[in-house]
Write a structure and sequence with these properties.
This protein has about 450 residues and is an alpha/beta fold. It folds into 2 domains: about 1-270, Alpha-Beta Barrel (TIM Barrel), CATH 3.20.20; about 280-395, no CATH class. About 45% of the residues lie in helices and about 15% in strands. It contains 18 helices and 17 strands. Strand 12 (about 300) and strand 13 form a beta hairpin. It is elongated, with a radius of gyration of 24 Å.
Length: about 450
Amino acid sequence: MRIIISFDTEDFTDPASNDALLRICRTLSEREVEATFGLVGEKARFLRDLGRRDVIEALSRHCIAYHTDNHFLFPDKSRRPCFASEIVEQCEWEEAVRWLVATEARGLADIEGLFGRRPITFLRTCGDSAPQIQEAHRQLGLKVFAYGPSLYERRRHIAHYANALCVSLPLVSEELTYRGEGPAQLDRFAKAGERLVNIRFHPCRFISDQWWSVVNYLDNADPPTRPPYRIAPRVPPDETDQRIRRLGELVDYARQRYGAEFTTYDELWRRTPRNPLFLSRSQVREAAHLVRQRLSYLRLNGVTLSVAEAFGAVIWATIHPDAEQIPLRSLVGPVALPRPDAADATPGAQLAPGDVVRACREAESVIESKGRVTHEAMLHTTPARPAALLRLAAAQLLGEAAIAEPAPVYPEGFDDILRQWDEANYDMVAFFPNRNRPAPNTKLAIKLQYWTYKPGE
């Protein structure tokens, strides 16, 4: 059994949370266990400004991940007071990504300055599964999206989605561990054949049963953006002692009973095979053949492509007919629906090669400028879905007649997943302090980005 121990390290209101954090780090280091600590940028600054070099040094022996700059809880004072997930819901794709990059760059820079290394793993906050977050993180150098997307939480699901390695694992919760029931949960996972498990904690929960964010933000019409903060009621010191002791006992049990190997999300990334930078023309022709049959991720002799990656390769190969090496680019999927009148050309009509190439050049200009699949293309004088263009380009690449036919909006084979996102509780999609607010734009973005999906193992 392999185990990832992770800590959402976020409380920047109570100095006692730093003392608990130090004890947690030492408990693990004494056992030669490397855990993943996802720091909020504000928490890193809290440690730095209080001069807690002892905590910083103890943390540096572990894997440092990221957990947003301020836990997505500060209102943006340049806007109507609201939280990050609401801003993403209200913005067009580019605006949301620009805002997120500008917001999150500070936290990553401060953590890098404190520890001398830049995180590559993001520990997802609350229900924030909007793929705009992943695109902003990609631009900032983050590569792993842990705990999600949230639809898959608490089950093993490792996949590439929105150009991040998304990792969800069976979970041993902190509540079970504190009650001494962590070993029994590991036993249940072992019996079920689980071989990779997450044990998850929040350092602030070792000292309090109430969330620091609840007492400061969620019931506050004007949340504070600087000290003084309210301190969440603490549990008795002997309860904190017991919780830390049970963390150590769970580590000892996992090692003694199952010979557990403790790993990190960073290590999962390092072990994940990388796609080549280029495909051969024969590989792209094979991809063209497969996407004509089914619009889904595809496997080519050891290389797995998302539909978005196949789109980029087929389009490029079509407008460079003499090239034998075709670049393999990790693209974002479409970020909007095609117009309702997009008819994919007259069904059954044969398009001239020049019309297909012109549409491919138009799509390539979007790829070069935006790094994404266009949401529609002009086929002669008719707006068409990107899937229609992909299949027409694939036919032309294979030397076959480019016959117009209806094409799906979303990748095929994801019907059940897309339905689940439609039905998902809003809190699983985007964190709104005011529960059950609609999040239609976020759900649409999630569904469209299944163009980028492919299995990760």
